[in-house]
Amino acid sequence: HEAKHDVIQYIDATIQGHQPHLGYSDIQQLFSSVFLLLAGQDTDPLQELDRTMASLNLLRFVLLRDKKEDNMTGIWSQIERIEETFLDPLREVLGVTRTYWQQERKNLHRPLHELVNDDQPEVKVCLQGGEALPDISRERKGELSHSALVALDMIESVLARVCDIIAMS
Asked: In whole angstroms, what is the distance from residue 119 CA to residue 150 CA?
């Protein structure tokens, strides 16, 4: 958390016109490395939840503090690239992931015999000693799907706020 705090302090000092410790190109490189999906379209937003939320919150902070007409950090010069390489792909990945978890929730409400597919082999995960891991209960699957959908709502909420800030500027 200390590194995150240092980045925020640096960006805030840059916006306020204080002497920056890093050059303009350094902050541009920082933005390029932070505002992207590491695995592109294959990114699992739930596995990357902390990184995604930190990136979105940093983007929101910078956009709110560094007005478009000032552009002290250069964020507004990169906004099209950020939309193309981070925000738009994130929106797509969120849609696919949400569809998956909504289907999982629907499946939990269907009778078990409807979910069994005789054409598919049964898969068991075994530990080193040959002991099979137990199946996850329907109740636990329900909890997992609910948590996943709540996390997706949280990401989408901040994403929508970032997009609103960009549209209003």
From this structure: 33
Beta bridge partners of 126: 132
* Phi, psi of 93, deg, nearest 5: -60, -40
- Dihedral in degrees, nearest 10, Cα atoms 12, 7, 9, 160: 50
C-alpha pair distances (Å), 107 with each of 3, 99, 123, 125, 151: 42, 12, 18, 21, 20
**Distance, CA of 45 to CA of 148 (rounded, Å):** 10
CB neighbour list of residue 166: distance below 8 Å, 6 or more residues apart: 63, 79, 83
Give 119-156 pLDDT, tens digit per residue. 555 555 556 666 665 677 888 888 999 999 999 999 99
Contacts of 75 (CB under 8 A, 6+ apart): 31, 59, 62, 63, 66, 82
Q: Which two tokens stand for residue 80?
A: 């099209």
- Position 72 pLDDT exceeds 70: yes
Structure token digits, residue 116: 């069994």
Helices (H), the chain: 2-15, 24-34, 49-65, 79-82, 88-108, 112-115, 138-168
Give the pTM: 0.78
